[in-house]
Amino acid sequence: TEAHIEAVEAADALNAYIAKTPEMALEMADKADAKIKAGEQTGMTGIPVGIKDLFATKGVHTQACSHILDGFKPEYESTVSQKLWDDGAVMLGKLNMDEFAMGSSNETSYYGPVKNPWRRGDTDTVPGGSSGGSVASVAGFAAMGATASDTGGSIRQPASFTGTFGFKPTYGRCSRYGMVAFASSLDQAGTITRTVRDGAIMMESIAGFDAKDSTSVDLPVPNFEAALTGDIRGMKIGIPQEYHLAGMPGEIEALWHQGIEWMKAAGAEIVDINLPHTKYALPTYYIVAPAEASSNLARYDGVRYGLRETVQGGGLVDMYEATRAAGFGDEVKRRIMIGTYVLSAGYYDAYYLKAQKVRQLIANDFKRAFEKVDAILTPTAPSAAFAPGEKSDDPIAMYLNDVFTVPASLAGLPGSSVPAGLDANGLPLGLQILGKPWDEETVFKVSGVME
Ligand code: GLN
């Protein structure tokens, strides 16, 4: 823990931590020592981790990196972080992220962008998003693991950009209690670690039923680490033909091909599959997610939490308007406007209802494919880490980065991103493994072979 507290300081230039908790960390480390002496050690005992700013941590900065939650320190702990502390893990601090987890480059945070420890020659690169602080802290050796959340790819895409292992479980596997809500039917907690084994240990710690989240599912949590047998002989791995995008960089195709070769060498059978509704996944996601966000973010009214901007001589509505105008960043405002539009009476059937139907078709595609295969292998993202500012003025270009991660989010499936190679500039690239609902073990097993 002491070494990590120093490492957090040394990694300051990354801007991964927006709040540091060294005193708490030392106290928690003492408790972990006592646990170890008493022979009560479990998987995460004494392991220093960072917590994405989206998870409520009692008495500690929790703002989902938004200005509108200024000064908010919750009275309660999120279930995911509580499970880590019950296991004896140690909190190093709160991690930077895109505001309300909306973004793919960590450039929308109120606390400024995060730097990727991996650089393209002399040029900085973005760490991906929204879990940019989580991946930068782990890749930069300033945490052994980090919590993260994935609504449309926010665990897998940044893991790909930083050569870390990202794991998003099945929707409902982890409790959302105490997670700042973005799009509730998609949001799912997960982990960023440097190895697959670390990911299995940390995931096992945070998973499990919680009566405080009505969408958490009451199923036993398997021993994920035990799934890492290295044996995938006879397993069927699906390759979705629709993921061969026109104009995709040759090195991404080559990486995917390399992954296929690794699977074959390990004794798995490669099966071509079709996910015909893939091309509708991005537009569907960018209707459903903003719709839910516009509803979830209605609670930030200047009365209940954080920032309040009043207007001289003005009334309540003026206060609402001034607070929301000052408190939300551009991307968040864009999502609220899109969401409000697609939910409005005149457009509900044309956009929101249609998107819900297409979402079901996308889920059905996966269901049919999983009748034939045990897991699916794809690239995680269509590019390596890009330069700051490269896409921040063009929302569509930014949204396109989620093309391979969003379909599984809409279907609620478990998935990982495994570091799989480097591009021509020496930047990391990840491959994505997707599994059947509740079959995280297969995702871990296949990930372990690729590592
Ligand atoms: N990049 C996607 C978005 O901006 C996904 C974000 C996420 O998974 N939280 O919505």
UniProtKB/TrEMBL annotation:
Task: Return the similarity comment.
Answer: Belongs to the amidase family. GatA subfamily.
Q: Which Gene3D superfamilies does this chain map to?
A: Amidase signature (AS) domain (3.90.1300.10)
Origin species, per record, is: Kordiimonas lacus
Quaternary organization: Heterotrimer of A, B and C subunits.
The domain of life is: Bacteria
Catalyzed reactions per annotation: L-glutamyl-tRNA(Gln) + L-glutamine + ATP + H2O = L-glutaminyl-tRNA(Gln) + L-glutamate + ADP + phosphate + H(+)
Q: Which PANTHER family match?
A: GLUTAMYL-TRNA(GLN) AMIDOTRANSFERASE SUBUNIT A, TRANSAMIDASE
Keyword annotations for this protein, in alphabetical order, are: ATP-binding, Ligase, Nucleotide-binding, Protein biosynthesis, Transferase
Q: What is its EC number?
A: 6.3.5.7
Q: Which BP terms in the Gene Ontology apply to this protein? A: translation
Output the NCBIfam families linked to this UniProt entry: gatA (TIGR00132)
Q: Which GO terms describe its molecular function?
A: ATP binding; glutaminyl-tRNA synthase (glutamine-hydrolyzing) activity; transferase activity
Active site, renumbered: K52 (charge relay system), S130 (charge relay system), S154 (acyl-ester intermediate)
Query: Gene Ontology terms, cellular component aspect?
Result: glutamyl-tRNA(Gln) amidotransferase complex
Coiled coil, from the record: none
Q: Which residues form the signal peptide?
A: none
InterPro entries per the UniProt record, alphabetical: Amidase (IPR000120), Amidase_dom (IPR023631), AS_sf (IPR036928), GatA (IPR004412)
List the protein's name: Glutamyl-tRNA(Gln) amidotransferase subunit A
The coding gene here is gatA
Domain Amidase as annotated: residue spans: 1-443
What role does this protein play? Allows the formation of correctly charged Gln-tRNA(Gln) through the transamidation of misacylated Glu-tRNA(Gln) in organisms which lack glutaminyl-tRNA synthetase. The reaction takes place in the presence of glutamine and ATP through an activated gamma-phospho-Glu-tRNA(Gln).
Instruction: Report the top EC class in one word.
Output: ligase
